[in-house]
Design goal:
single chain; mainly alpha; 81% helix; elongated
């Protein structure tokens, strides 16, 4: 009976250690994803600024060279927005699950 209690306690400790490791790994992944998104946004901003200002053959500086947006570009932007929304929903859901699990561990 005593041995069984000790085994149960050891299993609970191992489970809590696994949960903490999982939380740490998820946090590391979340941080890496955040850093990657920041780099991507910085790259996009630099690409936009290089496209918006360029010199012509007459050496005139054009600012904000506007053109008509095609349906393909609109669809691509819509898909990208949806992907970002879905990614954020997944992050929120994962955070909720982690909170619930952490509450179960500490209660």
């Amino acid at each position: 009976m005593q041995a069984r209690k000790e085994i149960d306690e050891r299993n609970k400790i191992q489970d809590s250690i696994k949960m903490v490791d999982t939380v740490k790994k998820e946090q590391e992944l979340r941080d890496a994803a955040k850093e990657a998104r920041q780099k991507k946004m910085a790259l996009a901003v630099s690409n936009i600024s290089s496209v918006d200002t360029h010199k012509t053959d007459d050496s005139e500086l054009l600012l904000g060279n506007k053109r008509a947006i095609t349906n393909e570009e609109l669809e691509a932007a819509k898909i990208e927005r949806n992907n970002l929304r879905n990614q954020r929903k997944k992050e929120i859901e994962r955070d909720r699950r982690i909170e619930v699990l952490m509450m179960k561990i500490f209660i």
